[in-house]
Amino acid sequence: MTDTPSQRAHTLRQAPPAVVVEGARKAFRLPHQRYSTLKERALHPFAASTYDTLRVIDDVSFQVQTGEFFGVVGRNGSGKSTLLKCLAGIYAVDDGRVDIHGRVSPFIELGVGFNPDLTARDNVLINAIMLGLSRKEARRRFDAIIDFAELHDFIDLKLKNYSSGMSVRLGFSVAIQVDAEVILIDEVLAVGDAAFQRKCFDEFERMRAEGSTILFVTHDMGAVERFCDRAMLIEKGQLTDIGAPDEISRRYSEVNFGHVSAPDPRDEQMGVQARVRSLWLEGPSGDRAVALQQGERCRAHIDVEFLDTVAHPAISVAFRNEVRHTIFLASTMTHGPLGIFHAGDRISVHLSFENWLAPSRYSLTPVITVWDPDERVIDKKSDIASVIVEGAVVTGGVVDMPTELEIDG
To answer: E-strand spans in 146-223?
Structure first.
């Protein structure tokens, strides 16, 4: 029987910490001169003695309880991946303390730990042994790893001939087979195709139910809110906030799109009239969804805050496929005027529809527009969520509308 959210939260509070980070700092030296030839080194022997210091992790402290699914979010360059590498032991922290209790399985960066001149078969066995399996156990699990990665036809192909997506599938398949107590997963899952991401999400559910401790770096706020018990936001190497996934998701959107969490007087001066606070999808069960079946009825939720008087705004969600084409727009425009809203008003807009999108991965972009007199966008947050659509048949179309068949003899 699955625990309720409150029961799970209580269980996690009673659990001992699996990961403890106290005052962690990590910086890199960036030399002013880089040598590419021996002649340059001879002519300028002291030029590389000066450098700049790039502080990537700056006094970060947090802990993750045993069995917790913990999200780590932040903009590109904020220090998320460096932090995970410090937890994995790839980097040593310059200051502070990092303690992990239990065997660690890292899936941190595309290609790390793989030898491109070896075959997939050799790489799987070597990496499984490096992550703690015996030779016998690595061989025993080899078929399960290849089955999950769906690479049966390529096991004797050298990895340098693999695509990035194939390497991701292989690396993730190895990482989940080593019975680790602590699993570190970076955002490289975004490289995989939609079908494999769905398998990964199913695997997240299994590991979460079995009590694995997972640290999950991602830009996908839908996945954070679907799977994580808590999350933290890193900005410029510093821990900005830590708390419930929906709150961290909102803070991430505010940081990523140039807003702060509290109302800012500068917003009025800049003409900001309204903002999208959050967006998510629900499936037929009413749960937040990272994957939907084709033909299901689903619902998009958009939370909006007004900072000025806005008359009859249109609130929409654009669904864009993997080649960045807008395939579908769920919008209030087809339902008539919404009314007049004033500064301080907050509304939740719910748009329900039958999902006939073709199987693929879609990014979601909420938009608020007004007409005064021409169409004007007053807020837009590109790709703040995503969803995977699954279907039994791939037709090659962008939508698969239901049809009726008649054959006359």
So the answer is: 182-185, 213-217
